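Hi P.,

Sorry for the delay on this. The queue was packed all week, but I finally got your sequence through. Input first:
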Amino acid sequence: MNETIKNILRKEAKYNWLDLSADELKKIWDSHRDILPGNVFEFIGAYQRIAAKEKGMLVIPSSVEIISMDCEIEWLIDKVLPKQAISLLFGKGGIGKTWLALQLSRAIAEGMPFLGFDTQKTTVVYVNFEDPRSVLKQRLKTVGTSWNFLIWHLSHDPPPPKLDSRKWELYKKLPQDSLLIFDTLRAAHGGDENSSLDMAKIIERLKQLRELGYTILLLHHTPKSSNQVYKGSTAILDLVDHVLCLEKDDGQFKLSTKDKTRFELVEVYFSFDKEKGFELTGDPG
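Then the structure:
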């Protein structure tokens, strides 16, 4: 379509087509609106990009163009897990993060409700750096399986690469628009989780995956001193999009947004049974 616009501009304005005013552009759009896309403002925006590029200038979109883009906030799990975002799920060791992540993986892979929330059916790639295959098999028997639920385990050839290794771009070859779950963030890299530089490098690579259409979920631990905060550098919180915390009190589990979200707040309560997995319960308050 840019070539169509260029041809019209060259015909109408000839030698000065790179320096037209808004009024001149409106007249041209009125004369050719039957073959030009969108409205006059989109036409002017397209012209500005074309002219700037022809002059060798840096081209960035205007706010008008941003709000006209065909993109809205979507959810893989309604109000819980945003699509094409980097989310962090943290909780103390042994609380059940892997159980929860496996259960939500199967729900998303099948497009089934998860703890009462609707899901958007999507391929899930579960990158498991920690569990023995025997433990993983046992848990999958409980939560269920799906051909759309892929497991990339350390025993696979090739094994999943560390995010700070040269082979990290293998993740870009996974099925497009997949949910990528890293269990755990600490095991997914070889750097210092307390170093803002090391963690910024990891998150920047995850952002590249996000911009390619992937959704990222990172499982992470809490320090021994507190169950209310995530472990490691503040760069983790600064750079992710959405933070969820898994807590347990008197046998009742709570999953809620914690400290940061670019999306919506959520709080959900549930119980756990080794034979059934997590099941929805009411708010104890």
